[in-house]
């Protein structure tokens, strides 16, 4: 079962923290609850499958603003139109639309793609970690994270900023950064839950 082992450990922790109310839940219900895909207006509340669409929209708009193709006064309308195309939701107001993040009001432009890059690197590294530690999923089911932490400390944390992200990715995974691992991760996790 795809990455469900962690939830065998997590349900025990939840029952200790939250008490008898958690008795009606099991590891499978927690797993499914943690993997709900439900498009939302707010990026930081987005599910794993739609989060990068928020990032893509904002970066596309930033490029249009700086190229002169999009006037500042036209941002709300363009946001709403493109948001509906990407996520299928009609934006009710600017608070849940183009003004939801503080980035633009603080003059923070151009780095939104780094959020998606982080997701891509994480998925690619996760595949490699699971290859290097074949019993990792079973360890996680027992709440044993020591071997994972050691791998991360040795292979990533110890290097600090010695390597650029793309160099470290190539060095550890043997491949350049690719969207394929993230797509395999999402499909492997969500297809069974949604029966697709």
Please explain how this structure is put together.
By secondary structure, the chain is an all-alpha fold. Among the domains are: 51-111, no CATH class; 114-184, no CATH class. It contains nine helices and no strands. Helix 1 crosses helix 2 and helix 3 runs antiparallel to helix 4. It is globular. It starts with a helix and ends with a helix. The model has no long low-confidence stretch (mean pLDDT 94).
Count helical runs.
9
Structural class: mainly alpha
The average pLDDT is 94
Any idea what the shape is? globular
Which series of helices and strands comes N to C?
Answer: HHHHHHHHH
Largest sheet: none
Q: In angstroms, what separates the terminal alpha carbons?
A: 16 Å
User: What percentage of residues falls in helices of 4 or more residues?
Assistant: 55-70%
Specify Rg, calculated over alpha carbons: 20 Å
- Spans of at least 5 consecutive residues with low confidence: none
Strand residues, percent: under 5%
Quick recap:
It is built from 9 helices and no strands.
Write out key terms for the chains shown.
9 helices; mainly alpha
